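Researcher: Last one for today. Full complex below.
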Amino acid sequence: MSSVAHPTLLVVDDEAQIRRLLRVTLEGSGFSVCEAGTGAEGLSEAASACPEGIILDLGLPDVDGLDVLKRLREWSQIPVLVLTVRDTEDDKISALDAGADDYLTKPFGGRELVARLRAILRRIRGGNDPAPVVFGEIEVDLAARLVRRSGEEVHLTAREFGMLRMLVQHRGKVVTHRQILRELWGPNAEDNTHYLRVFMTHLRQKLEPNPGEPRHLRTESGIGYRLVED
Amino acid sequence: MDSLPPPPAAQLGESHHRRSLRLWPSAGGSHWQEYLWVTGVVGILTLICNPLPEEYYQGLGFVYLLAVILLSLRVGSGPAMWAGLLSVAIWDYAFIPKRWDWEIDKLTDALQLGPYIVLALVLSQVTVWIRNQAREEHEREQHATALFHLTRALAAARTLDEAAVNSLRLLDVLLGAQTTLLLRGDDGGSLSPHGASSYFLNAGELPVAEAAEQLRRPVGRFTETMPESLGYYVPLLREERVLGILGVKPPPRANLPGRQRELLDVFARQLALMVEREHLRAAGEREKLLAASAKLHRTLLESVSHELRTPLAVITAALENLVGAEPALHANLLGEARMATRRLNRLVGNLLDQTRLESGALKPRLNWCDARDIINAALDGARDALDGRPFSISVPEDLPPIRADFALTEHALANLYFNAVQHTPPGTPVAVSAGVVPGGGRVFFTVADRGPGIPAAHRERLFQKFTRGDAARAGGLGLGLSLVRGFITAQGGEVVIGGQPGSGAIITLYLPHVAADNPPPE
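Model: Here's the assembly. Have a good evening.
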């Protein structure tokens, strides 16, 4: 966040009241905001205003938000946070598959929205930052392939480290089951989600202060996992 | 012919009773067969008497007379008269001296022959007449008995269908015919065949039944309208309305005497009454249902508007008070507003879920899940409601991944947490546990509280939507357990309410369990 004083965000939502509320919330958190009320307007704003992030509603009056997202992804990798009333797992997964960076359902908390936005913006700017990542008593040095807990090295198997690496690289953001399975086990293993349960249990036992109620390695209902830093 | 028709249910199944049950026999041998028969009997009698000595001829006259009377008991009046004439002729020709001659020697024999002729003819006719009288009397009695049984079959039936089945089977046997019944539904509409029919109308017979409907009188075979058809059709009339059609199809060439048609007409009137009664009853039922559904709508509207307005009122009041309030109160007011929005959100979510369940839009997505994760996710949503209560989770360390729809199971558990909070005194503990049911095959989640418990009599009722426990304090639409059951049964599971009244409620969710294979070694 330090390199740009006021990153610009584009809000695409047909409800004027939601746009007003988002403007108040986001400007109060140091963002500048531009708005669009339809999908078409949103796409042209995304091209002309060069925002650094987009908050996208799926229920738009002219085109479905998912189509807006797909068309956007044809030419841009701008971080997109989907903000919608659609709350089923299928909706979430299809939005994430279509290229959304995160997904939040209405009604939402302002603080959570800002935290999620910061996470996806930071990931884009500092995603390849070689500096070790610290959460709780854990320190992960991806470059050195080292994990320390309270300063002591923790031994992880290759797959455990692979999962942790994906979560750390996308920290703050949902990583779907399918993404993990495809990357670590190959495209044929996409349905073997029970593998993930086993490895996640091991990871939590090794890294969480209370594995039964994880603070950092969080489950995202039916979708995937998310690394929460604080 | 001698036994009375037994009640339909008792003996209809036994085929050997069917014959004896038949009310009217089909016509016996035809007329000329009777003449032949009479001639044969008289001829045989003559052959038997022929060797007797000549002087027995007077006694033989009485033997012939007896034969005529006995024959008259069996045959019609024409053949009976023929028997009389034939026996007189043979007696004169073959036996009265001198034999084998029409001549009569003595005057006394001639005097005997004259009255003999009269006696033979009169006796034969009187016998036939008496016999016919007796038969008619018998038929009248049978008719009354048949009607009695049909009426009883109608009266004893609890439903129209039962009445139709019983009476049609009885008719089949009584008439030795097939029967069919067409009924109009209680909403008007066209006539449709009833399942109790023993034959159904084909393209040839349908117009005949339709003619009976239009003319409002019996038509078809044995009548002047469309006599070439196979069946006889009687409309079921009630105040000028045709409620149905009763059809009877005797075997080809068999007759359907007037008395039987009369019986059918009387029976059709009674059946029409029954159909009308059924229609009135159905209309009453509909009325009652409508009233009940209107009442439910009213209650629902009241309860939904109460549940929606209460949190809205809290939010409005809190926000308005915020403007002039001392800063110290801000946190309090905001806290109230936040709590109200959560309640509102939960309510809307439950209403949406209920709608999804009922519209069949809810398709479970089974996936491998960690039971502990589900319990925690549900807890996240209910944390503020559980505030200040001891909450314990017990899940075995080695619980394998379970196959479930994460979101549905999470929603079900969250609803159980909210229920536990809502129905138990503040500060009492809530405990959740999960595990594999011994023997495998099923996994369970239980949520136990230390509240008043749920009386066994109320348990099943609570699964109905918009139903709240008697002890429910303010709040709630009564959707919770209905949703829980919907979510769990959609995944092939089961919800069981347990626990002892007085020592808390224990609600258990069961889900089918399959063991997952282990991930390949690294």
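The two ends of chain B are 92 Å apart (CA to CA). Residues 1-29 of chain B have pLDDT under 50 and may be disordered.
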